[in-house]
Automatic annotation (TrEMBL):
CC annotations in GO: endoplasmic reticulum
Entry protein name: Fes1A
Compositionally biased residues, Basic and acidic residues: 352-361
InterPro entries linked to this entry: ARM-like, ARM-type_fold, Armadillo, Hsp70_NEF-Inhibitors, Nucleotide_exch_fac_Fes1, TOG
Species the sequence originates in: Actinidia rufa
GO molecular function, one term: adenyl-nucleotide exchange factor activity
Keyword vocabulary terms for this entry: Coiled coil, Repeat
SUPFAM superfamilies reported for this sequence: ARM repeat
Stretches assigned to the TOG domain: 10-253
Residue ranges of coiled coil: 29-59
Domain of life: Eukaryota
Pfam families: Fes1 (PF08609)
Disordered: annotated segments: 308-361
């Protein structure tokens, strides 16, 4: 415990040192021989520290959040991109830090970079930070709408950068899924035709994200029989048929990799035209061995552990309070009745202590 406390103190101390550097004017740092690469390395280190939710929230307490947001306006594109990356880590699954960044006008700076930065990587990183900042954050979503964020998303979809397109499509799908009103906004701004175009992209992830967005619109019913896509019915049918033809020509290996795309094409066809797609007739919708999805054994290993803990439903945190089976006591001891009673009490106490200790960590 002493070692862990000492390590925490060291991290806070180091974060204060980084904060001091971030507060130092760029010109002064250059005069002292600090390069842009040095600052990128420093931000990399800061990002590692703020993986822990407590440290992410403490960054504001020690005065480091505002200087970090200031780095979004740095003259070096790589530093602007890296600063947005750190902000993403800070606000991900962290309502408290989301609120702090909103209060510090962080959304405005991120939107500025997203819409106006000349460097596409900086724009992409800013969009990633915006996505994490407004996710499950109603004030953030409202502010995004008021700042004409949808127009910026439309511009991003017109980019030639596939990573930028993917991030924009994923955020767009999230917003539509959260609120039916956003489906109307998306339709009015002409997104359906852009997504139809992207559904034929050479990038598989862009195609899937575009199909996912179109499916969300197809399930939105106030605009007509096929929801928000009714005006482009024939065009969509042509695009889906082209995708079916393309899937039919895939090798066995490519078919396996395109499982989600196959399912999206069929679901979208069914939602719009009230009948299964020809993928079913051709036996391409479900391949041998795909009847049941494989168990998810990997995702939990690729999520930051503390963020995973924070996002866990509240009921999961009461595991330690459940009654545990009495441990087997070996060797001579008291009478069985007494041993059983004492064993249960001690075991439950130990488990409860371990659980609450884990929560503090």
């Amino acid at each position: 415990m002493e070692a862990m406390q000492a390590q925490t103190v060291d991290v806070i101390k180091r974060m204060k040192e980084i904060t001091l550097v971030m507060k130092t004017p760029e010109q002064v740092l250059e005069e002292q021989g600090v390069t842009a690469a040095d600052l990128e390395d420093m931000l990399d280190e800061l990002q590692e520290h703020v993986e822990a939710i407590d440290m992410a929230n403490d960054l504001n307490s020690i005065g480091g959040l505002v200087p970090l947001l200031g780095y979004l306006k740095n003259s070096h594109a790589n530093i602007r991109a890296k600063a947005a990356d750190v902000v993403t880590t800070i606000v991900q699954n962290n309502p408290r830090s989301q609120q702090l960044v909103m209060e510090a006008n962080g959304l405005e700076s991120l939107l500025s970079n997203f819409t106006s930065d000349h460097d596409v990587t900086a724009r992409t990183k800013a969009l990633g930070a915006i996505s994490s900042l407004i996710r499950h954050n109603k004030p953030g979503i409202a502010a995004f709408r008021l700042a004409n964020g949808y127009a910026a998303l439309r511009d991003a979809l017109s980019s030639e950068n596939v990573r930028f397109q993917r991030k924009a499509l994923n955020l767009l799908h999230y917003l539509m899924h959260e609120n039916q009103f956003d489906c109307n906004v998306v339709t009015e701004l002409g997104f359906p035709r852009i997504m139809m175009y992207l559904a034929s992209s050479k990038d598989a992830e862009v195609r899937e994200a575009a199909l996912r967005g179109l499916l969300e619109l197809a399930r939105d019913k106030p605009g007509g029989e096929n929801g928000s896509l009714s005006e482009d019915n024939e065009k969509l049918k042509q695009i889906l048929q082209e995708r079916i033809n393309g899937i039919s020509l895939m090798s066995a290996e490519d078919l396996g990799a395109a499982m989600e795309e196959r399912q999206l094409v069929d679901s979208l066809w069914n939602a719009c035209y009230k009948e299964p797609s020809s993928l079913r007739e051709k036996g391409l919708l479900v391949l041998p061995g795909e009847d049941a999805p494989p168990p998810d054994v990997a995702s939990k290993h690729f999520e930051p552990p503390l963020r995973a803990w924070a996002a866990r439903p509240a009921e999961d945190t009461n595991v330690g309070s459940e009654k545990k089976p009495t441990p087997l006591l070996l060797g001579p001891g008291p009478l069985p009745e007494i041993a059983h009673g004492q064993g249960t009490s001690n075991a439950d106490a130990d488990i409860g202590d371990d659980h609450h200790s884990g929560e503090r960590l």
